[in-house]
Specification:
Elements (H helix, E strand, L loop, with lengths): L3 E5 L4 H4 L4 E8 L5 E3 L6 E15 L2 E6 L2 E5 L5 E18 L3 H7 L6 E5 L2 H17 L6 H18 E2 L6 H18 L6 H8 L3 H12 L3 H19 L5 H7 L5 H12 L3 H7 L4
Antiparallel strand pairs: 1-2, 2-7, 3-7, 4-5, 4-6, 4-7, 6-8, 8-9
InterPro entries: AraC-bd (IPR003313), Homeodomain-like_sf (IPR009057), HTH-like (IPR037923), HTH_AraC (IPR018060), HTH_AraC-typ_CS (IPR018062), Tscrpt_reg_AraC-type_HTH (IPR020449)
Pfam families: AraC_binding, HTH_18
Keywords: DNA-binding, Transcription, Transcription regulation
């Protein structure tokens, strides 16, 4: 790896109208000290591959080592510098009209140091971006760059954590026995204890895991799954009455099923069936 390499995107009006666009990317074999009293103009993701450094931001001093990365918001004063060399990092700089709102939707609300559970996945994504820049001599398609960047941000959501604990991806894996149980038993009554027993944890912790991973309660997820199965029945079995479909997907009350279905899909089960009827 060279000591440093920078790739600057040749921005056009197309980029500025995209929700996300890449500004620059590159790496330092040994990142030097950087001090920005007024912050930086774009969003940045830095990933550490060796050595150790310090990020000073918002009155905090945070360590950045191998297997960690830092997400920096624009306009936030900060300083970072190596304390164990070589401090090797790669970075991606990005911006866009929806960059901040997208990060918020992924629960990244401010500049932060993150633990990475699968650094090789993120490294592969950044390497692909660098490779595309190099291959196209710094002229990467606006749409292609935006697509690659969106994939990187989703990987950040899946494979990072604010503490040295489980990432969102690992929480999904932890909940897999519950997902499997719901898939097999959705047509029957399911209790919170049934779900907790699949993980051998308490019902309360089961709710915490669902909220942390999916942003919803266990029974809200079950109802959505049942509605999804009901949509399959409605389309595949045009002669089956709605009340029987409600029973098949685990609802004891047809009226409650119809209410939930309309809230979810914006139309009644029969209206949905007519809209998706095979002609």
């Amino acid at each position: 790896m060279e000591k440093k390499r920078f790739f600057w995107n040749l921005l056009t009006d197309i980029d500025f109208h995209l929700p996300l666009y890449l500004v620059s990317t590159g790496y330092w074999e040994n990142q030097p000290q950087v001090a920005r009293k007024d912050g930086y103009k774009g969003f940045q993701w830095f990933q550490c591959f060796s050595g150790q450094g310090i990020l000073e931001i918002a009155g905090k001093s945070l360590t950045l080592s191998q297997g960690q990365g830092m997400l920096l918001y624009p306009g936030v004063p900060h300083r970072y510098f190596p304390i164990s060399e070589p401090w090797t990092v790669q970075w991606v700089e990005f911006n866009g009209n929806f960059a901040e709102s997208l990060l918020h939707s992924l629960h990244f609300f401010e500049s932060i140091v993150l633990y990475i559970t699968k650094p090789e996945v993120l490294q592969a994504r950044i390497n692909e971006i660098n490779h595309r820049y190099n291959r196209h001599k710094n002229q990467l398609s606006s749409y292609e760059g935006s697509q690659l960047l969106y994939g990187l941000l989703l990987d950040l959501f899946r494979y990072t954590s604010a503490s040295d604990n489980r990432s969102n991806h690992e929480h999904f894996e932890q909940l897999k026995p519950i997902f499997d149980y719901i898939e097999k038993h959705y047509s029957k009554p399911i209790t919170l204890q049934n779900l907790a027993d699949q993980l051998e944890v308490t019902p309360h912790y089961t709710c915490v895991l669902f909220q942390r991973t999916l942003g919803t309660r266990p029974f809200a997820y079950i109802n959505r799954y049942r509605i999804q199965k009901a949509k399959e029945f409605l389309q595949q079995m045009p002669e089956m009455e709605v009340r029987y479909i409600a029973e098949q997907v685990g609802f004891e009350s047809p009226s409650y099923f119809i209410k939930l279905f309309k809230n979810s899909e914006g139309l009644t089960p029969n209206a949905f069936r007519k809209m998706h009827a095979v002609r």
